[in-house]
Design goal:
Layout (H helix, E strand, L loop, with lengths): L1 H8 L27 H28 L4
């Protein structure tokens, strides 16, 4: 969530979906697998939104180029 502030200052667009894990040390097993099924759903929603934004920006860049 701290990265959102910095990205805004750099002129980047961040996705609106927030996926915070307040106690990550207690949320994953030693192999990195989630201990709570809510983590899977939250990550999927965030990645889906990020993928949508990336595709939209790519399509717009191809159609209109980049500002100079």
């Amino acid at each position: 969530m701290q990265l959102r502030c910095m990205l805004g200052e750099l002129g980047c667009i961040s996705v609106s979906k927030i996926f915070g894990i307040p106690t990550v040390q207690n949320s994953l097993d030693p192999d990195g697998k989630p201990l709570d099924d809510r983590l899977i759903g939250g990550a999927k929603r965030l990645i889906t939104q990020l993928d949508w934004h990336a595709r939209a920006m790519k399509n717009h860049r191809q159609a209109h180029g980049v500002p100079t």
